[in-house]
Amino acid sequence: MSNLDRQASVNVCGGRGFVVAEPVRELLSPRRVQLGESTEVRRLLPNLGRRMVGAWAFVDHYGPDDIADEPGMQVPPHPHMGLQTVSWLHDGEVLHRDSLGSLQTVRPRELGLMTSGRAISHSEESPRSHARFLHGAQLWVALPDAHREVTPHFQHHADLPVVTAPGLIATVILGALDGAVSPGTTYSPLVGADLSLAHGAETRLPLDPDFEYAVLAMSGEAEIDGVPVLPGSMLYLGCGRTELPLRAESDAGLMLLGGEPFEEEIVMWWNFIGRSHEEIEEARRAWMEGSRFGEVHGYAGNRLTAPELPPTSLKPRGRVR
């Protein structure tokens, strides 16, 4: 998914200097962003107070939206570099096209994972004939420097491993959780999991104390380590945890995001993750000139135009503002 904000801000992230090395309960509120003609998203990362959770660098939550009489998601072709995109749905379908020729409909609880490497472009849209409701999350994972030039590729996994406990079904989206390992390719130690809690469930989820974590509330009413978290908000949890208490006041859907703190400082601007102003500038120039990022075929509309770069040089500075 693209960052469609025409006043794209510079986000400087990464480095261990601001990692919270102990358990905390830091509630992050979203910023509302219009995505195309009919979809509004709640942006949780980058956040005013926190930029990354492990290698997770971008989180949008959208819906549930009634799109029965609407076109639904319509994100024109746009470029990416230096990252992976993760498409995750609770309701609806998203049709993915990319410059490699991939054409795939992603459905609820299926993983759509695109690795940009040096350069890729793609579009995302609700199919012409689509379900009434659209509800999901779009996330980015920053690629470490050693893998930023990896060959671009797209993966779709309809069958993902699950971890169960009384009142809990945890689907492992990326990485590993309690011994279950996702087939999705990762380039740094991390985890992403979808948590379905039944009304009245009270359980504890095993965690890695070397990871930092956050939980995104997708639906329902739940308490995370005793903190009520409403849908569309996210609770940052810090590091040093071996387990996470969960309690559901109703049927609830959550996403667990975690990973080793990302050591490298990065620059994130529009749909690019780089390491310097010059890198971002070159990527923008290549997209506007129609080179490097390839072409998406089959989308009925024009590709996105990149916003103007800010007048000052982009510099990586750290994980929090």
UniProtKB/TrEMBL annotation:
Cofactor, free-text remark: Binds 1 Fe cation per subunit.
Coiled coil spans: none
Limits of the Pirin N-terminal domain: 41-141
Residues reported in the UniProt entry to bind Fe cation: H78, H80, H122, E124
Necessary cofactors: Fe cation
UniProt cross-references to Pfam families, sorted A to Z: Pirin, Pirin_C
Keywords, ordered alphabetically: Iron, Metal-binding
Stated family: Belongs to the pirin family.
Protein's recorded name: Pirin
One MF annotation (Gene Ontology) recorded for this entry: metal ion binding
Domain of life of the native organism: Bacteria
Domain Pirin C-terminal stretches: 193-292
Database matches in CDD domains: cupin_pirin_C (cd02247)
